[in-house]
Amino acid sequence: IVGKIDADGDGFVTVEELKAWIKFAQKRWIYEDVERQWKGHDLNEDGLVSWEEYKNATYGYILDDPDPDDGFNYKQMMVRDERRFKMADKDGDLAATKEEFTAFLHPEEYDYMKDIVVQETMEDIDKNGDGFIDLEEYIGWDDGTGTRRVGHSGTRHSLQDGKLTREEIVDKSDLFVGSQATDFGEALVRHDEF
């Protein structure tokens, strides 16, 4: 994968090459995710995903059982999804075009969705629901992967000369495999990467 990241083939991965690669990998993942989900949610195949289609495909089986065994609050999740869907739906017709559906699934990619990203992040961190983030909530914030955002003992790594060699990348492969550069390891098992 280092050869793919090293766009100019000079044997070094620069900060700019790494940024470009991460952006490329992220956009490809978003595109594939939207295509996969589109097929599962455009139930009537009219080229739009309505809120009702999304809700039925995602929560239909749960709506019959409002108190599921796993204890997860799906009703609350559905309310949150509806709020985000309505924000992504620029024309307000409750039917998302593919672009609007992409904004719904990946709001961090769209400027007009930034408020919802901030609101949802605040809600995720504010565990006691008081509208404020106290020090304990901030320090204990988990990004959903079991990784704490703050207060971890990670070492800061810097590029002394602004370049990484293949050997430097391999030496720190544990950091690389768990990063966006490899799509969190996914790119390493994909045949089209090699």
UniProtKB/TrEMBL annotation:
Gene: Calu_1
Major subcellular location class: endoplasmic reticulum
GO cellular component term, pick one: sarcoplasmic reticulum lumen
Keywords assigned by UniProt, alphabetized: Calcium, Chaperone, Endoplasmic reticulum, Glycoprotein, Golgi apparatus, Membrane, Metal-binding, Repeat, Sarcoplasmic reticulum, Secreted, Signal
Name under which the protein is recorded: Reticulocalbin-3
UniProt KW Translocase keyword: no
GO terms of biological process kind: protein transport
Stated family: Belongs to the CREC family.
GO molecular function list: calcium ion binding
Known partners and oligomeric status: Interacts with PCSK6 (immature form including the propeptide); probably involved in the maturation and the secretion of PCSK6.
PANTHER family found in the cross-reference section: CALUMENIN, RETICULOCALBIN
Superkingdom classification of source: Eukaryota
Organism, scientific name: Catharus fuscescens (Veery)
Pfam families for this protein: EF-hand_5, EF-hand_7
Domain EF-hand stretches: 1-28, 29-64, 76-111, 113-148
Function according to Swiss-Prot or TrEMBL: Probable molecular chaperone assisting protein biosynthesis and transport in the endoplasmic reticulum. Required for the proper biosynthesis and transport of pulmonary surfactant-associated protein A/SP-A, pulmonary surfactant-associated protein D/SP-D and the lipid transporter ABCA3. By regulating both the proper expression and the degradation through the endoplasmic reticulum-associated protein degradation pathway of these proteins plays a crucial role in pulmonary surfactant homeostasis. Has an anti-fibrotic activity by negatively regulating the secretion of type I and type III collagens.
Subcellular compartments: Endoplasmic reticulum lumen; Endoplasmic reticulum membrane; Golgi apparatus; Melanosome
